Amino acid sequence: MNTLLILNIPPALEDDMVDYLLALEEVRGFTSFAAQGHGGGEQLTVTEQVSGRRQRVQFEIIVDETLVGPIVAGLSASVGKDIAYWQLPVSGIGHT
The pTM is what? Predict the structure, then answer.
């Protein structure tokens, strides 16, 4: 079954994440975009606490669900810390 794996990272890790994902043969492509995180007060800088948000970069990858575990397992060593992730089932995929 296809799964949408979503990775949410600090901007400082963006280049390392791109390199990591491009090196994985199983990952045929992905999408990334700027995002803003809200909440998690104890992890926010003072500036982020005042503005109520912190800058993040979000990656979306569609892979077979059996690949999610191995991809996530390599994140800390290959990319870094402070990476949030979640996965969702994909009921359909295609191009027009």
Answer: 0.85
